[in-house]
Specification:
70% of the residues lie in helices and 0% in strands. The chain is an all-alpha fold. It is globular, with a radius of gyration of 18 Å.
Length: 211
């Protein structure tokens, strides 16, 4: 049986360079936000600090709010992989449990770091708006992928239900870690609480996921 958490094929050189540039810009922006305050940093300040043009900056990050969520594409790929790349003998619930626990392990390592979990996902209307938009986009991407994979065997309404529910599980984890950081909780305490939450959610979802 193959591991349901298997990795995607490594990206090519061009894609790796783009990812490195994107990560470097996000790290520089995180440092500026921490030193000067989010509201006091302009996009042009970030571009100058990162030594890129404003157009290049906007190509990677459409708005300043998107700079906070530098895991956007990575998380979308992770969600798609957990659902679509699992072994046929592995249930969706099993794959979700493994993928969610792996994500919790990865994301909790960044607690307290400058470029770590954006605790601000729980605060601020503009950041919250971008976070909701990202969730919707991930759910739509998963819905479309499921429709292509399952073809006529899965109604679109069912694919939407699965897509939105799966994304909600990962959102709960990220928000839970962010809220834990805001409240000053330790990594172990946050993980313990979210471990039980993941198990509860997966058990509930398993009752409806039979694809």
């Amino acid at each position: 049986m193959s591991d349901p958490r298997k990795q995607l094929r490594p990206p090519g050189l061009r894609e790796r360079k783009k990812q490195q540039t994107r990560q470097r810009i996000a790290q520089i922006a995180a440092g500026l936000f921490k030193r000067h305050g989010y509201e006091n940093v302009r996009m042009i300040d970030i571009a100058q600090a990162a030594d890129v043009s404003e157009q290049t900056l906007y190509n990677y990050f459409p708005t300043k709010e998107h700079l906070v969520f530098d895991m956007d594409r990575e998380l979308e790929a992770r969600i798609l992989r957990v659902v679509l790349d699992r072994d046929p003998t592995v249930s969706l619930a099993e794959s979700l449990r493994a993928g969610a626990l792996e994500f919790l392990e990865d994301i909790s390592r960044s607690m307290g770091k400058e470029t770590g979990v954006p605790a601000s996902v729980a605060t601020g209307p503009e950041l919250r708006r971008v976070w909701v938009e990202m969730n919707a986009r991930w759910a739509d991407a998963l819905t479309d992928a499921l429709m292509q994979q399952k073809k006529a065997s899965l109604p679109r309404a069912g694919a939407k239900f699965v897509g939105r529910s799966v994304v909600a599980l990962f959102a709960v984890i990220l928000e839970g870690v962010g809220e834990g950081a805001i409240k000053g909780r330790g990594r172990r305490a946050v993980r313990k609480k979210l471990d039980s939450s993941i198990e509860f959610i997966v058990r509930q979802l398993d009752r409806g996921f039979k694809i």
